[in-house]
Specification:
With about 120 residues, this protein is an all-alpha fold. It contains 6 helices and no strands. It has one domain: Methane Monooxygenase Hydroxylase, Chain G, domain 1 (Up-down Bundle), CATH 1.20.58. The mean pLDDT is about 85.
């Protein structure tokens, strides 16, 4: 299994990077809010990685090749936050072409994009 950061890893890193004695008392007072926001921000990233990992394992993709597919789903996720409809479809289509040129299996890319975008 490839070494990728899950949601728990991201939250632990964020928490470890922000000790109150270093960042100050003002931050210590608002740390609970900041950790909650980090959780909200990191959750979609963690979900996408886990969903993609399940598809990749079921398709028999070797663990050493997961990085290309995970990069693809991260770029699609980023596009999902700001685009909809035909524009999103064109972006995803372009990303599929690009990652297919990098050696990713187009059928697996289709599964991943349908998982995230639908249709």
């Amino acid at each position: 299994m490839p070494i990728t950061k899950g949601l728990r890893d991201r939250l632990e890193k964020f928490t470890a990077k922000t000790p109150p004695d270093v960042t100050g008392a003002r931050y210590a007072a608002s740390k609970a809010i900041a950790v909650g926001r980090e959780w909200d921000f990191a959750s979609p990233i963690g979900e996408v990685v886990e969903l993609a990992r399940n598809v990749l394992e079921s398709d028999g993709v070797p663990a050493g090749q997961f990085a290309v597919y995970l990069a693809f789903v991260q770029k699609v996720r980023r596009a999902l936050f700001s685009h909809r409809g035909a524009t999103l479809g064109k972006i995803v289509s372009g990303l599929k072409s690009y990652f297919a040129q990098l050696g990713a299996d187009p059928a697996t890319l289709d599964k991943l994009s349908k998982l995230m975008v639908g249709g």
